[in-house]
Amino acid sequence: MGTMKDRYENVLRFCERYMPLLTVGAFLAGVFIGEYSGFFTGLVNGAVTKFIDLYGYFAPVAIFLILAPSLGRTFRTPSTGRFVLFFTWWYFVRKVLACVWACAFIAVVFRLPFLPHGVGSIGAAIAQTLSTLGHMMVVSPYFWAMYLSVIAAVVSIKSKLLCSALENTLETVEMSGKYFIPVIPIFMVAIGTYIQGLPAHLGEQMQLKAGMENLLQSFSIWGLQFNPRSPLGMIWVYVFGSLLVGLSCFIWHFALLMITKLKVKRFSLKTYFLDYWVKVYPLLWSTSSESIATPLNLYLVKKYAYWVNPMVRRFAVGVGSYMNINGTLICVFVLGAMVFSLLGIPVSTVEWLLAIPMIVLISYGVPGIPGELVLFAGPIATMLNLPPAIQPVFIAVYVGLQIGLPDSFRTGNNSTDNYVCSILLNEIYDQKFKVPGEVPEVEEPETELPGDLEPAYLASSTEGLGDYSQPPAARA
């Protein structure tokens, strides 16, 4: 008889191995249950409705509790001079470029107008959007949460008590991803039921809360017609939106692969796909958690890119696990554009571009666990000036569409990016920051997976990351 912990680890291993099948099967089971069980459908819809009602109170608190320690950790990252400063800036630039790429992608796919409706020039469009942004920066609780996060992060540099409290909060959130894995199939049953009943549920909610008709509208993308007012139509919307997230992330990642191949001659695409990618991507896809996969990612970088300086590796993979999350940013834009299309609300490319600073700032506070995109829903609705009566509908649809398959695709992009970035950053380090005469600290490649990095490597999302990713409290 094993202990409760042993039983849990066995369940965890089973879920890791078969999670893709469990996820898809659970989603289809949820759709079936939603079709034939009004009682279960009512329970799921009621829970989501309650969540949406409380979202305005929950989201700002969540943003603060996650963003403040994340910014504090970034501010307190051990510095090795220009190295950390440059690479931190490099990650920031990549975030902005990922957002620009996402704007270009949704502009093409959804055929967005470049300027807002009724605005005749770029200057007028920028002025109009900045006016809305200025108002929101004063009155929106989401912005207040961001301001308090920055202040708390700065204070935590000097206050050990605040630093410890913030770090403990963030570690708790990050570690929660491990315990969430076994319930993902159960959760996907609820998501399938929710998506199946979403058209009817939203129609009822709009009648009850705003006296309005169901806002969901039929739309077409490159000849494909979608009718979200029917259960099957909404399911196709969910699947198609997930595939769009996957496509946009794969294009972004492929561009990074090509750049790295051109700049680093010893980088092998064959090794990358056949040795690295096949080992890490299934875990990322099934758990939707960058934090959980970080120890395995570190090991695989050490094994298959053993020439990378350990300091660079730990920084690129450790710090990159919460700073280099471009798949998440791309997903925010793609799903946001999808929901606006469902609601028939035109949003211009310029408006999306001007939302980039806010989205980038929030991205420093995402926890690396499933469902993290929910933190962006309210700020996006506020930033793009949705009427108050429509904001709960936007959040309800966004919450339903962002969990499951989109989560899997954006997580897979985030962590595989870190492997490639470690190789590219090592090349930059050798060219710009390596001290003349410095002997590189190169570690021999390992041939076997250490015991503590087998499926049980999920036991800690920070173990083994070294000085560049462990929280200051742990390093002390």
**Gross morphology:** globular
Q: Class by helix and strand content? A: mainly alpha
CATH class: Mainly Alpha
Low-confidence stretches: 444-476
Spatial sequence of strands, sheet with the most strands: 1-2
- What about the largest sheet? 2 strands, antiparallel
Structure, explained:
The structure is a single chain. The protein is globular. The chain has one domain: Orthogonal Bundle (Proton glutamate symport protein), CATH 1.10.3860. With 476 residues, it is mainly alpha-helical. A hairpin with a 2-residue loop joins strand 1 and strand 2. The longest helix is centred in the first third of the chain and has 38 residues. Strands 1-2 form a two-stranded antiparallel sheet. Helix 5 packs across helix 6 and helix 15 runs antiparallel to helix 16. The C terminus is likely disordered.
